[in-house]
Amino acid sequence: VIIPPFEIDFKKAIKIINEKGYKRILLQIPEGLKNHFTKFVEHVEKETGAIVNISADPCYGACDIANSDIEKLKIDFVIQIGHAPFPFIKNYIVPTAFVNAIVNLDVSKVIEKAIPILSGNKVGLVSTAQHIHLLNKVNNILLENNIEAFIGKGDRRIEKKGQIIGCNFSAATDISDSIDMFLFLGDGVFHPLGLKLSTKKPVVICNPYTNEVQKSELDDIKDMILRQRYGAIARSKDARIFGIIVGSKLGQQRIDLAYEIKDKLDSCQKESYILISNNFNPANLEGFRNIDCLVSTACPRIAIDDYMQYNTPIITPVELDIVLGSKKWDDYRFDEILNP
Amino acid sequence: VIIPPFEIDFKKAIKIINEKGYKRILLQIPEGLKNHFTKFVEHVEKETGAIVNISADPCYGACDIANSDIEKLKIDFVIQIGHAPFPFIKNYIVPTAFVNAIVNLDVSKVIEKAIPILSGNKVGLVSTAQHIHLLNKVNNILLENNIEAFIGKGDRRIEKKGQIIGCNFSAATDISDSIDMFLFLGDGVFHPLGLKLSTKKPVVICNPYTNEVQKSELDDIKDMILRQRYGAIARSKDARIFGIIVGSKLGQQRIDLAYEIKDKLDSCQKESYILISNNFNPANLEGFRNIDCLVSTACPRIAIDDYMQYNTPIITPVELDIVLGSKKWDDYRFDEILNP
User: Across the interface, do A35 and B288 touch by the CB < 8 Å criterion?
Assistant: First the structure.
C-alpha cells in the first residue's frame, strides 16, 4: 500500500495470515497514518479473506503494542504498522508482525549538500525506522567523497543498525567516541535533539523531504528546550509532595527505578507517591492536585514534549537528581530507557 | 477512613495483606475520591507496612480493574475502592479486594416524605453500591407504612440485591412485573433514567443527601435525553461508513455483538469497521475522520453521557436497529450489558 511518501509492504504479514489461516486480525496504525485506515483494511482483507479490526488506542511507538488486553477478543494476529519491534521482547500473547512504513526518497541531493560540512570529519550515521534502509546509500555517497562513516549497533531495545528512537540513542553512543559529528537522516527535531543531548556531539540534520541541511539551527532549539528544562527543575526545588509516574506499557515499566527514586526522596525527607498508568495525560492526573512535582519514568517524551500541557512541573529522573543536588546542571543528560 | 459523606473500611483488605505478607499494593480510586489519595495511602501503609502505589488510569466502574497491565510491575495485591465487583469474574491476575465506599445517612426523612406517592403501590427498591446497605432500612420504613416492597436479584454482573449499575438494571427488571413503581435511593439522574428506560415503570428518586423526592422531574430529563437520542438516530440514517467500537476492558468486550452488527451492516450494504480500544474518547478517534457514525458496544454511558463531545453521531446497538429499520422508535430501550 502506498500512501506518499510512505510505502507499507504487507507481503510478509499476509503470507503468515494465509499460511496459518488466521481469521481475525487487529491492525495498529501510527497516529500519522490512522486516517488512511480503510486502505490498509481493504488491502489485507482482500489478500487474506480475514476480518481486519483496527485498534483505536494511541500508537506512538513500539511500546504501544496491543497486549494482553486483546487476549479475550478472539484476535488471532496483530499487525503493527510503522514501528520497529523491541528485540528484547521475544513473545507476544497474540502473535504480532511489525510492518515498516518506509520512505523511499532520493537522498543524494541532501547528502551532497551536506558534504562541505562533513568533509574532513569522521561521521556517525543515524536515522529513524522509516529511513533506516537509506543509510547504506548515504554511506556510499560519503565514501565517494572520502568521508569515513560509522553506523553503530544499539542495545536490546534497538532492532536495526543506526536506528535511534525517542527514548534510546544507544546506536549513536555506541560509536560516539570514534566520530566527530553525527549525520541524522530524517525530519523533526526531537530525535536529533535527544541525539545531541545524549552524545554531546555536533549533529547535522539531513532532511530528505525538503533537501535542507541544518546544523546550528539545532543549537537554538537545544537552548530553548534546556531553558525550559532548567525552569522545570527550578520550579521543582520547593516541591513538598512528589508523584513518581510509571508507565505500565511493555517497554516502559521502570518500576525498579521508581522505587529507587522513592528511596532517594525518602532520604531527603520528601513525601512521594508512585502513580501507575498505561497512558499518562493531563486528564488522568487531574485527581492528584496536591502533588507539587511529577517525576516521569514513563516515556521520556512526556516530560519534554508535553511539558506545557501539565500544570505541575514534570521532570525526568536525571533532572530530579539535579533538583536534589546529587547531580549538577552541567551533568544534564537526556533521559533514556536503556538495556531493558 | 472517613471522607464525608463516605466511609471506606479497609479492615478486610488490610487483614489479607498482613496475613499474606504482601509488600506492594496498587490502589484504584474512583474519580470523585482521587484527590484524597494521600489519606488512603497513609492509612494502608501504616496498618500493613507495605508500599502503596496508586493507579492513575481512569476508574469509573468495575470494568476498570487493574488487569494484566500490572502483571510485570511486581504488584502483589490490588485494592479497588468504591465499585462492587462483577460476580462473573472469578479470578484476577493480581489478587484484588473490592472496598466499598459507603454512605451512612439517615434515610427516614426522605422515605417518609415519599410515602404519600408510594402509598397503595407495590414498590421495587433499587440503589447503587454506596447506598445499597440502606435498602433494608428503607424496606422497614415502608413496611411500617403498610407499603409492600420488593428487592430484586441481578444477573451475573450484579453483586448485591437491589443494586443497579450504569450498564445493567437486571435487579430491577427481575421484579418489574410484580411492582407498580420503583424507589431509587441515591443521587444523580443517570441511574434512575436508565432504570426508567429499561423497565418503563415510574421511578421515585429519594435523594438522602438533600432529602428531596423527585418523580415527574425525571420525565423532563428522559424527554430531553430521548430527543437527543432521536437526533443521533436521525443523523445516522444517511451514514455511509460505520465504526463499531469494542471496549477491551474486562466486563465490556462485546466482540461477538460487534461481529453481529457488522453482519447486519454488511447485509444493508453499509461499510463498517470494528475499532477496538481500552479507553474510548474523542481524542483516540480523531484519526478516523471518514467514519460517519459510531456504534458503541463499549460502556453504554459513552453514547448517552459523552454524546456532545463527539463530532460523529454515536449510537447504541439498539439505536442502530432503529437506524436500519429493523426496530421502531417505540421499541426504544436503554443499552445494557447483560449476563456476560
Answer: yes
* Residue A117's pLDDT band (cuts 50, 70, 90): very high
Laid out side by side, the sheet with B181-185 consists of B149-150, B123-127, B181-185, B203-207, B212-214
pLDDT at A152 (0 to 100): 98
CB contact under 8 A, A278 and B26: no
Contact A40, A8 (CB under 8 A): yes
Contacts of A75 in chain B (CB under 8 A): 276
CB contact under 8 A, B290 and A67: no
- Which secondary-structure segment (H or E) carries A233? helix A216-236
Distance to chain A for B284, nearest Cα, Å: 6
- Would you state the pLDDT for residue B90? 87
Task: Provide, as residue numbers in chain B, all residues whose Cβ is less than 8 Å from the Cβ of A56.
Answer: 245, 275-277, 280, 284-285, 288
Q: How much of chain B exceeds pLDDT 90, in percent?
A: 83
Hunting for cell 511539558 — which residue is that?
A: A307
Give the span between the Cα atoms of A262 and A275, in whole angstroms.
11
CB contact under 8 A, B74 and A273: no
Mean pLDDT of A218-224: 91
Residue contact B69–A67, C-beta within 8 A: yes
The predicted structure's pLDDT at residue B138:
98
CA distance, residue B247 to nearest chain A CA (Å): 10
Q: What's the pLDDT tens digit per position in B143-166?
A: 999 999 999 999 999 999 999 999
Distance from B148 to chain A by nearest Cα, in Å? Answer: 43
CA–CA distance, B37 with A287 (Å, rounded to integer): 8
Question: Is-contact A131 A100, C-beta < 8 A?
Answer: no
- Cβ contacts of B26 on chain A, cutoff 8 Å: 276
Contact between chains at B55 and A275 (C-beta distance less than 8 A): yes
pLDDT in tens, B232-278: 999 999 999 999 999 999 889 999 999 999 999 999 999 999 999 98
What ipTM did this prediction achieve? 0.90
Q: Is the per-residue pLDDT at B66 higher than 90?
A: no
Which pLDDT does position A62 carry in this prediction?
A: 87
How far is CA A210 from each of CA A124, A159, A195, B194, rounded to the nearest angstrom?
21, 27, 21, 56
Rg over CA atoms, chain B: 21
- Residue B340's pLDDT band (boundaries 50, 70, 90)? low
- pLDDT tens-digit readout, B27-63: 999 999 999 999 999 999 999 999 999 999 988 888 8
Q: How far is CA A166 from CA A63, A193, A201, A322, A337, in A?
A: 11, 10, 17, 22, 9
Nearest CA among A176, A184, A202, A3 for reference residue A110: A184
Which of A100, A135, A98 has the alpha carbon at shortest distance from A7?
Answer: A100
A255–B58 CB contact, under 8 Å: no
Mean pLDDT value across residues A104-128? 97
B195 phi/psi in degrees, rounded to 5: -60, -45
Answer whether residue B308 shows pLDDT above 90.
no
Q: Chain B residue closest to A25 (CA)? A: B274
